[in-house]
Amino acid sequence: MPVSRRTKRVLETLSPFLEGMIGQDRSHPNPCDFMAGNPQEIAGREYVETLQKWLEPKNPQWFGYGTPTQPAQEAAAEGLTAELGINFEPADILLCRGAHAGLAGILNLVVDPGDEVIVP
């Protein structure tokens, strides 16, 4: 049973992806399930060059906290849609720059208004 209505909607949306991940044929002696880094591949040249390009700060706030930009959400949605075959809209993407923002987003996903949440 889902924790919340939001979680139920997320699970319904992701069910084709999850079935592809979890529903693998486990009878093969060395299954490639794509979970936990299986298989592992060397990063491609283009990927490494892109990381190197964007690691160099372009302004004093380059690595500072701020709100995600619309172009970044659009790029993430486009990439996930192409890679997973599931339609993602930019508004579906939560980009965060730290654990606090990520945890707040996840908490918002799994509880409904009026639910009691206890944080130790």
Tags for this model:
mainly alpha
Describe the structure.
- This protein has four helices and no strands.
- Helix content is 47%, strand content 0%.
- The two termini are 24 Å apart.
- The protein has helices spanning 5-22, 45-55, 70-84, 99-110.
- By secondary structure, it is an all-alpha fold.
Number of helices: 4
Low-pLDDT residue spans: none
Query: Count of DSSP E strands?
Result: 0
Given the C-alpha coordinates, what overall shape results? Answer: extended
Question: What is the strand and helix layout of this fold?
Answer:
Blueprint: H1 5-22, H2 45-55, H3 70-84, H4 99-110
Task: Write a short abstract of this structure.
With 120 residues, the protein is an all-alpha fold.
